[in-house]
Amino acid sequence: MNKRDFPRVHFYDQDFVDIYDRTWALVHDFWHSAGDGKQGTEGFFIYPEAEGNFLNQYETIFSSFFFVYSNKNYTPNSALDFFYDRQEENGAIRNRYDFDSKEPVLKRDNPEGLGMPLFAWAEYNIYHKTGNKKRVKDIMPVLIKYMNWIDKMFKSHNGLYKSPLETVNMPNTPRKEAVFLTDFNSALAVNALYMSALGDILNDKEIDFQYKRMYFTIKTRINSMMWNDEDGFYYDLDAEGNQIKKKTLAGFWPMLAEIPNEDKAAHLVEHLSNPKTFGVDHPFPSLAADEPEYDENGNGACGSVFPILNFVVVKGLEKYNRWEIARECVIRHLYYVLETLSPAGNSKKQGFLWEAYSPVKEGPAQWKGKPAFPRKQYLVSVGLSTISLMIENVIGLSISLPRKTVNWTVPNLEVMGIENLSLKRNLITILSSKSQRGWEIHMESEKLYYFTINILNEKKKTLPIPSGKCSMLIDKL
Q1: β-strands 449-455, 405-410 pairing
Q2: Where does 53-204 have alpha helices with state H?
Q3: Rounded-to-10 torsion of CA 453, 454, 458, 459
Q4: What ranges make up the beta strands (E) of 54-152?
Q5: Residues 409, 456: contact at Cβ < 8 Å?
Q6: Cα(36)–Cα(43) distance, rounded to whole angstroms?
Q7: Disulfide engineering: 195 pairs with which of 40, 120, 182, 346, CB 3.0-4.6 Å?
Q8: Burial of 380 (0-12, 13-18, 19+ CB in 10 A)
Q9: Structure pTM?
Q10: From CA 12, how far away is CA 33, in angstroms rounded?
């Protein structure tokens, strides 16, 4: 195999495989090498805009979650390092930069250029896909300074953090009175949780303890002030600390941060199945269907389905072992994404991958008075659906290179798997198929690793997989 090939996914529905392959092919058009050439591992994904070339912190962080699966064709590190290299003396890293001038782009409604603080989460994921401990050591001082800046500039007397609405990338959502945002505070808790985990990787007990304490402080505040028992939901707060009862997808960010207990999580999951709130045809709308501002056309963040927010909700469901509903919703979401790529099953008419989708019908979302929304071929976000969620939730693979582990969560037995996935200097293949002997898993690897198969509600087993080829029968496990 050519090491420049991407991992190949296998799935009984070929359309899912095609959309995965097509995403990788399209990335090529937007990738700018860090050197002189257009192509090269080190580089940046830049979506061309009328006003110029920009790098956005939010999208850079999230795109790293699918670039880690590129078999080293594209690195997520260059774009993240671009932000780290711009860190100011006080620790500030701004949320948007002009790529050509390297200057921050600040807006009136977000004068400090505050972004969603999720660098540590991205770096933790990169570490588990690359095993590069040196990188963790090198970036840690930058991440600590950044967290100190946020703590100093945005922490309020009640222990929560104030942030402009522009920070959370839900521009026209009906949250104008909100001062303490559920999603921003939860994102900070996520970052603190993974700062602690990075400290643990470095065996630095001080960092580990410092950020665990910060995490538990934020977690306690969110649970005591933002949770509404009657509605079973997390709400933003106004300047006085009163709950603003608007159900937006921001209310699910606490699950990603492992903030709700099992009882609270169960209430949130109910909302995802309730057609009156978030259980609409195309999961998940950015605004609950029973809110007066909800719009079936999406109208920006008044109902549109955003791949980045879907990724957040799905990863939150994973934290509470809700694998089945997560997978079911991902598959439904991908069918809607597919419809816009090949409209009405017309394979000859070429469609697009979009920044946002309608919550109840095929096609992109709309936003009154904003003809440029949504952006087409916006791979920097939709790649999360067509690549990351495809590998991690439709096929069900979770990989850690430092631990030498591959976990396969299989909700039901189907023809599926992955071929030639690079684990540093190890290429692995895992495929399930049905033979005369029954359901069989075929594996190939260049080095030893540990494989855990979890067939939901039936059996779970961990086995050492030697180098070379081997197979196992499910019935014999």
Answers
A1: parallel
A2: 57-67, 77-85, 119-130, 133-154, 182-201
A3: 50
A4: 54-56, 96-98
A5: yes
A6: 10
A7: 120
A8: buried
A9: 0.95
A10: 35
